Every structure is written in structure tokens, then in C-alpha cells.
Amino acid sequence: MAALIVLSRKRRIILTLYGIALAYSFVWIPWKVPVSRQGNRFERCGYGWVWSGPERSKVITYNPPKKVEGGYDLISEEDLNGPPLTALPDTMRIVLRCLTATAVCLGLFFGVTVFERVS
Description:
The chain is α+β, with helices and mostly antiparallel strands. It has one domain (9-118). Helix content is 39%, strand content 31%. It contains two helices and five strands; from the N terminus they run H-E-E-E-E-E-H. The protein has helices at 9-27, 91-118; strands at residues 28-37, 40-49, 60-68, 72-77, 88-89. The protein has a three-stranded antiparallel sheet with strand order 2-1-5. Helix 1 packs antiparallel against helix 2. The protein is elongated, with a radius of gyration of 24 Å.
């Protein structure tokens, strides 16, 4: 028969929060979006759910309309040369989130252990 590990209520709460933090790290993820404009290549970071990808920029609406050259009124505009729809998860940021959650929860877990022994 396997030995049962008995955890105090505080430790169970910490482990539950750790599980939620890890789930959050893998569900709401940072995305690397390659952008290339006028010879410059860089990556933009966008956040989004794992099933929907990064958010695209919204349409800019001017109220009142913006005056542009030629006497025209500009009501709204959209970046037609926006970033491509292909994006990759930023694995380094995901790993950093996991390491941060692990470090914080380990500190709390062992802090509770020391606090319980002292009191």
C-alpha cells in the first residue's frame, strides 16, 4: 500500500495556487509575431489564449474626423500591412513564468514549514 502524504491546509493551498499558476502559464501565453517593415526585422510580443492566438490591432476610429492632406476627412483607419497571422509561442517567457511560479511557491512552501516548526 502506498504511503499517504499528509499536508497541512496551508501547504495544500500553496500547492493549489502553484497548479493554477502553471495552468495560467500554459493557457494565456505570450506570442512572438515576426514583423518586417522597410528592411527592419523585429518581433512584437502579443498575449492571447492558446486556442485563439495573439490579438490583432484594432481599427482606429476618429471622432470627430481627422483632417488629412487634400482636404479629406479621415473617419477610421486600419493597418493593412499589419503583422502576419502566423505567430509562435514565446517559449522563453513561458519557461520564465514557470520558473517564477516554482520559486515563489517553493519559498512559500518551505516558509510555511519553518513557520510551523517555530510555532
